[in-house]
Automatic annotation (TrEMBL):
Claim: Zinc is one of the keywords in the record: no
Domain ComEC/Rec2-related protein: 232-492
Name used for this protein in its record: ComEC/Rec2 family competence protein
Transmembrane segments: 17-36, 43-61, 67-87, 253-273, 280-299, 305-321, 328-346, 352-373, 385-404, 416-442, 454-472, 478-499
Protein's membrane topology: Multi-pass membrane protein
InterPro entries listed in its UniProt record: ComEC_N, Competence_DNA_uptake
Length: 503
């Protein structure tokens, strides 16, 4: 096949939206971490630079004017994000709850934003944390209706069963937030919630499905497999033993137990394949895929992290199913911009960074690396599988190092070994989750079929974690990210050099 034909079949990638997405992300990130004054300064600088570019390109040729217009649009969009995060950051800093000072006691009415998450300790999870939105605070000066994001730290026994969307009244002491993510404060509850409103029908349905699915998994698979299955399907790791959790982390498999874009891509891919097998039309496929996506978001909870996973999974599936990488790049950039506009705190969220980078690696690196492997005699299926696992590892390792201070040296091999069972577990597990809400015995039977692949997954994690040097400790934060990135680049250059010498 000629070079011309290849050029026609593989159109150039469309990177025009990437600078805008990167600028919006960086301005939001710096505005949150460095404060509203820095955000205001970035707004002024970006606006002035946009005006300078307009003047410089105003009388240029048509092509130059188009380039200038794209640069101006990116700068002005980033300036808008800077101004927005400036307002939000200022509101968080000057919030009445934040100004009370550490140790002050308040009575607050809050609406829970997510499920309570246990704080792991050697003696067991005695406490939980749950993000929430303020509705009202009451102090000695009186009551005031006010908004803002808070985190409630509370005793596990009286809070673990609460659902997102429930309005509760909490009495506790004010603490500074643990992270710079536009959270106003942490409230350490002194006891059970004083008043609890009933959750919405949607949240009750989601909670019932999750509870019944976990019960079906536990009945069908009484060992660690039963605690792992809900984590793989809907991100519910409450029943996962701590030992298995640590083995997954050391093996580089912990991403499997969090709701990710991979879950979404697998489920939507299964729906589209079923539609194709039933010879239904493309419009029917789109409708069914949208319904499946909505159902997944409801069951896994419509929290920012789940919505992020849904968007990233849909973008990744677009790249895989259609093979149109040119359209996938603008879709990814648009997803980043929209998600940051709605949930600016995602800019400092490691899960968001991992999702974006993994999706970008899937779109940009994996196809090229798969072609490189195939050109050297690797079968197509093996080349694509290895390329996806390697690309995901390469682009996410610096972020994982910055987040946890560790780098898994067995991650690629472990992910390759378990890759064959992830899709069946996700799809069959989703069927079991749906059945659990309508026919519990059938859900138990379906879940029982997943015993062998779940056992294989746990065995791989155990063996990989036990391998000498499976996890390397590096500095956390930026130094660890730079060190990990340098290692990845060095290994990549070494492989290319070694292959080049053998040819």
């Amino acid at each position: 096949m000629s070079t011309t034909e290849n050029a026609v079949e593989t159109p150039p990638l469309d990177f025009r939206l990437l600078p805008a997405a990167a600028l919006c992300w960086l301005t939001t990130l710096f505005g949150i971490l460095l404060g509203w004054r820095v955000a205001l300064g970035m707004f002024v600088v970006l606006t002035v630079v946009a005006a300078a570019v307009f003047v410089a390109f105003r009388y240029r040729a048509a092509l130059a004017r188009r380039v200038g217009a794209g640069v101006i649009a990116a700068l002005l969009l980033a300036a808008g994000f800077s101004l927005a995060v400036c307002v939000r950051s200022h509101a968080s800093t000057t919030h009445p709850l934040a100004e009370l000072g550490e140790g002050a006691y308040v009575t607050a009415t809050v609406v829970l934003s997510d499920d309570p998450k246990p704080i792991r300790s050697p003696g067991g999870p005695a406490w939980v944390t749950v993000p929430a939105q303020l509705r009202e605070i009451r102090i000695a000066a009186g009551a005031s209706a006010i908004g803002g994001a808070v985190v409630v730290m509370a005793p596990a026994d009286s809070w673990r069963t609460l659902l997102p969307g429930q309005e509760v009244e909490v009495r506790g002491s004010v603490r500074p937030p643990r992270h710079s993510d536009l959270t106003v404060a942490m409230i350490r509850a002194t006891g059970p919630p004083r008043r609890v409103e009933a959750p919405s029908r949607l949240q009750r349905f989601a909670g019932d499905v999750r509870t019944r699915f976990a019960a079906a998994a536990s009945e069908a698979l009484p060992g660690a497999e039963g605690g792992l299955l809900p984590g793989l399907v809907v991100g519910d790791t409450s029943g996962l033993p701590d030992g298995v959790r640590e083995e997954f982390r050391a093996a580089g498999l912990s991403h499997l137990t969090a709701v990710s874009g991979a879950n979404v891509a697998i489920l939507l891919g299964a729906v589209l394949l079923s539609v194709r097998g039933l010879t239904l039309g493309p419009r029917t496929g789109v409708v069914l895929a949208a319904l499946a996506l909505a159902m997944f978001v409801v069951i896994a909870r419509p929290s920012p992290s789940v919505l992020r996973a849904a968007v990233m999974g849909a973008v990744g599936l677009l790249a895989l199913v259609t093979g149109r990488r040119k359209q996938a790049i603008p879709a990814l950039a648009t997803a980043v911009i929209v998600l940051l506009a709605v949930y600016p705190a995602l800019a400092v969220d490691f899960g968001f960074a991992l999702s974006v980078l993994a999706t970008a690696g899937l779109i940009l690196l994996a196809p090229t690396w798969a072609d490189w492997l195939r050109a050297r005699g690797v079968p197509r299926a093996a080349a694509e599988t290895l390329a996806v696992a390697t690309a995901a590892f390469a682009v996410t390792t610096p972020v994982v190092a910055a987040m946890s201070g560790t780098v898994s040296t067995v991650s690629i091999v472990a992910n390759l070994l378990v890759g064959i069972v992830i899709a069946p577990i996700t799809v069959v597990g989703a069927i079991a989750a749906v059945l659990a809400s309508v026919w519990f015995p059938a859900a138990v039977v379906v879940a029982r079929c997943l015993g062998p692949p779940l056992s294989w997954l746990i065995w791989v994690a155990e063996q990989a974690a036990a391998f000498p040097g499976a996890s390397i400790t590096v500095p956390s934060g930026i130094p660890g990210a730079v060190l990990a990135l340098s290692g990845v680049v060095a290994v990549g250059v070494g492989i290319r050099f070694a292959v080049g010498r053998t040819r």
